[in-house]
Structures are given as structure tokens and as C-alpha cells.
């Protein structure tokens, strides 16, 4: 047990050293990977490829745009098999409906009823969908799918087009349904 704990701590220390100097040939991680013949330090490009988070205020959204119409076609080919033809749910969760149900005995938590920020939808689709090929959608496709799902929930009109400027401005029905973290030790941009 102590050996496992020591090994885990040593691994964390190596990871920390690698983050401090990921490409340095003198780094402990570089030495360990060379000795063991496994892995490689993450290059700045690899790190950039994985740095795809999007914040509630829209920071991190890439350039691009997508319409409800384009999202409807894409949803039919890439999402409907799991989420149902109109987002009602199938083998995967429903994306549509549930408005007004959160205070009931059986709340329905969907994009339109529960999620406080539209940017969260973009982030989730971009990072994790479609289930069989996560991170395979372009920014334009992700904007289009976001627009379509928001439209299905009655949040956007049929002729809407989303981009990095308009998406953070979308007012979600449950935007005030969560409490802010007011602890003084939490940075204000995270609250």
C-alpha cells in the first residue's frame, strides 16, 4: 500500500516537473519516458489542441457560425439516432422539453429547462459529441447544432444564426436558477 502511494506521488511530481519544462531534455519526465520507452512530452501544439474549454461569458469560443437550418440537417445525420428525431430522447438523454418542471417531484433536466448558459451547450458538443467521434465536428457544425437545439427548446427563432458574439448573449430560461459562489477566495471570473 505504501509503495503504491509513493509511486502515485512520484508520478505527480514527475507530471509537475514536466509541466514546468515539458520539452526540456533534463526534465524528469523526459528521462523517465526515454528510459522506459513510452510516452512523450506534450508539445505546445498538442496542448493547444486540447485547450478547447468555453466559459459562460464566451471566452474560448472559436471563430465560425452556424444556422438553425444547417443544424437541423446535421442533427438528423449525427444526433437523432441517440437523442431522437427532435431531441426528445432515445438511447441518450432528451435535449428538449422540461420547461417549468424543475420545481416538481419529477424534474426534467434538459438543455432548455436546466442549463444556465448557452455556451455550455457549445462546449459540451465540441468536446464530447457525437458519441462515436468526439471532437470531430467543426466550429461551424458545433454552432449550427447549438442553434438547432436551442431552437427546438423555443429559445431561438427559426432564422437564427449563432457565432462567437451572439452565443454568449442567448438568455437561457434557467440562467438565474443557480447560486453564485460568493466565497472571497474564489476568483470573480469563476463565480
Question: Could you please describe the fold and organization of this structure?
Answer:
- With 191 residues, the chain is mainly alpha-helical.
- The chain has 2 domains: 2-43, no CATH class; 65-169, Cytochrome c-like domain (Cytochrome Bc1 Complex, Chain D, domain 2).
- It contains 7 helices and 2 strands.
- The chain has helices spanning 2-20, 28-36, 44-50, 68-78, 80-83, 118-128, 139-152; strands spanning 65-67, 161-163.
- It has a two-stranded antiparallel sheet with strand order 1-2.
- Helix 4 crosses helix 7 (139-152) and helix 6 (118-128) packs across helix 7.
- The chain is globular.
Global outline? globular
The structural class is mainly alpha
CATH topology of the largest domain: Cytochrome Bc1 Complex, Chain D, domain 2
* Helical amount: 25-40%
